[in-house]
Specification:
Order of helices and strands: EEEEHEHEEEEEEHEHEE
Strand order of the largest sheet: 6-5-4-3-2-1-14
Helix content: 10-25%
């Protein structure tokens, strides 16, 4: 069965598995919070406001499981009334020692990864495994310099296209970055994230056009929140 992936704006992602959804960095202070259903799972890569905003989640949560690094704990628990049993804080000791857990049949492998621009918030990336599908979400990280066979042969790599150190990065530079990742990791599909609704990023349409000129047809750059990529 196909898995549907939608980008929600900025770094937000919705992944539709059979019977439940996983939302990653989808409750932030830039976009409208999505509606949660029974069995859905909420993940956060870090606590920057464009990826995590506690009031948005607290207004939407209805017993769903929340997983993320230490920075999300205090805003969600301090005087809020949130049941602490819903919250799992994960932060592996180092890059080479990921943590694994399972929620409702979804395998979640958590990596400590480095935020792309050196701000150094506690940051994690996720490898999701369900019924033979493997999907890796980078968050605000371009770190792949670790030896883990789990990140090879992915069904989908959801990769945030962020200008390094917030300097202007050209469409061409982004396309070559994605080409190098494709050649090294060989995922079935790469989905470029963090472009929709992001005023400091390149145009999604321009990047998709450049990728097509390069013949990189398995790299998808969604143009809107309505577009769904099936993997």
């Amino acid at each position: 069965m196909d898995t549907g992936i939608k980008l929600l704006g900025i770094g937000g992602v919705a992944i539709g598995f059979d019977g439940f959804r996983v939302f990653v960095d989808a409750f932030n202070d830039y976009i409208k919070p999505p509606d949660l259903g029974e069995g859905d799972i909420v993940l956060f890569t870090h606590d920057d406001a464009d990826h995590f905003y506690a009031p948005a989640l607290l207004g939407a949560i209805r017993g769903q499981k929340i997983i993320g690094p230490p920075g999300i704990a205090y805003p969600l628990l301090a005087g809020t009334g949130l049941d602490p049993r819903l919250l799992t804080i994960v932060y592996p000791p180092n890059l080479c020692s990921p943590t694994e857990t399972e929620v409702g049949g979804l395998g979640i492998k958590v990596y400590q990864t480095t935020h792309f621009n050196g701000w150094q918030p506690p940051h994690v990336s996720f490898l999701l495994k369900h019924r033979g599908k493997k999907i890796y979400i980078t968050g605000d990280s371009n770190t792949f310099d670790f030896d883990d066979c789990g990140i090879y042969g992915l069904d989908a790599l959801i990769y945030s296209m962020i200008p390094k150190e917030l300097r202007s990065t050209s469409v061409r530079e982004h396309a070559m970055e994605l080409k190098e990742i494709q050649e090294r990791l060989n995922p079935t599909c790469i989905i470029g994230n963090h472009l929709i609704g992001c005023e400091w990023a390149v145009s999604p349409a321009d990047l998709q056009e450049e990728l097509e000129r390069e013949g990189l047809h398995n790299i998808k750059i969604p143009q809107s929140v309505k577009e769904e990529v099936l993997v």
